[in-house]
Design goal:
- It is built from three helices and three strands.
- The chain is an alpha+beta fold and about 130 residues long.
- It has one domain.
- Strands 1-2-3 form a three-stranded antiparallel beta sheet, with helices on one face.
- Helix 1 packs antiparallel against helix 2.
- The longest helix is centred in the middle third of the chain and has 33 residues.
Length: about 130
């Protein structure tokens, strides 16, 4: 492996680890929060999908107060920041792949260019690659 290939492989490895950590953090922000009005009061509720049944579940966090407003604001702000970090990491990965990092780190039979599809590449006798 050349020095450049080693560097690219290390970059891909560290990016994958960083993305996995961000994805795990993002799971904490699955679903969402909303204010629900019940009679004359508003309550902050947290909702998310049950992983087993797929049903949406909701739980009340409490009646509207400075504390629940702070909880809501932190939730929205931190989730948006994680989404921004994940989007930036994806952009960086796409940029690196377009510049050949993916091709150098993960050579493919029949050429090093990526076609963009998520499938296995196979070598054929034809000039272009074909997929099974």
């Amino acid at each position: 492996m050349t020095r450049e290939q080693r560097r690219l492989a290390e970059t891909m490895r560290s990016t994958t680890l960083e993305f996995a950590a961000l994805a795990r953090s993002r799971e904490e922000f699955g679903g969402g929060m909303q204010w629900l009005k019940v009679k004359k009061f508003e309550y902050l509720t947290r909702y998310r999908r049950d992983p087993l049944t797929g049903e949406q579940k909701a739980a009340s966090i409490g009646r509207r107060s400075p504390e629940t407003e702070g909880i809501y604001e932190r939730f929205i702000k931190e989730r948006a920041e994680l989404d921004r970090q994940i989007a930036a990491l994806r952009r960086d990965n796409r940029r690196a792949d377009q510049n050949g990092a993916g091709a150098a780190a993960h050579p493919r039979p029949g050429g090093s260019r990526r076609c963009g599809a998520r499938h296995r590449h196979v070598r054929t006798d034809r000039p272009r690659h074909h997929h099974r």
